[in-house]
Design goal:
Elements: E1 5-7, E2 16-22, E3 36-37, E4 41-50, E5 53-67, E6 74-89, E7 95-97, H1 99-109, H2 148-157
Antiparallel strand pairs: 1-7, 2-4, 3-5, 4-5, 5-6
The chain binds zinc ion.
The site of zinc ion has 8 residues, from loops.
């Protein structure tokens, strides 16, 4: 039974508050993963039953090490979700463990194309920035816009 297992029978009408830390292992990331957790997941959640859903609202944060998609260097990144909302449908179960849905939401909240200059722990400039930017590639002269389109439009007005 995890810290976020909610026994529905014992859930008070007004809900309950749970806060604490989840160990890194909960995120179940392998060492080959480009995403590496470097801190426990800190959560503070108000949990309440809303008709056929269990709703958890609060804040979640954790530190990760991500790989910059541009320079391929690792950089620390703090994920902070100040308005975290989790909704889990209640079927017939007596207990709902919010750990797995929480884990999924955290991983989905991480940037899909991380850039090291977006790192919010140690600000830096991506060393590879600009190297592959379109403005640095020789620009190909764009052909002048064709007049045909204009004439067609005028024809249609007639
Ligand atoms: Zn970078």
């Amino acid at each position: 039974m995890s810290a976020l297992s909610i026994e529905l029978r014992h859930l008070p009408e007004e809900g309950l508050h749970r806060e604490g830390k989840l160990p890194v292992a909960v995120l179940d990331l392998s060492s080959d993963d480009p995403v590496r957790p470097i801190s426990p997941v800190i959560y503070s959640l108000d949990i309440q039953k809303d008709e056929d859903e269990l709703v958890a609202i609060g804040t979640v944060s954790a530190d990760f090490e991500l790989e910059c998609g541009r320079c391929c260097q690792r950089f620390p990144f703090r994920l902070e979700i100040p308005d975290f909302v989790l909704e889990v449908p209640i079927e017939n179960e007596a207990m709902i463990d919010l750990t797995e849905p929480l884990r999924e939401d955290i991983l989905l909240s991480l940037p899909s194309y991380p850039r090291c200059e977006d790192g919010n722990i140690t600000p830096r400039k991506c060393p590879a920035e600009g190297k592959f930017e379109p403005e640095n590639t020789p620009s190909i002269e764009a052909p002048p816009p064709s007049k045909a389109g204009t004439w067609d439009a005028l024809d249609q007005l007639n």
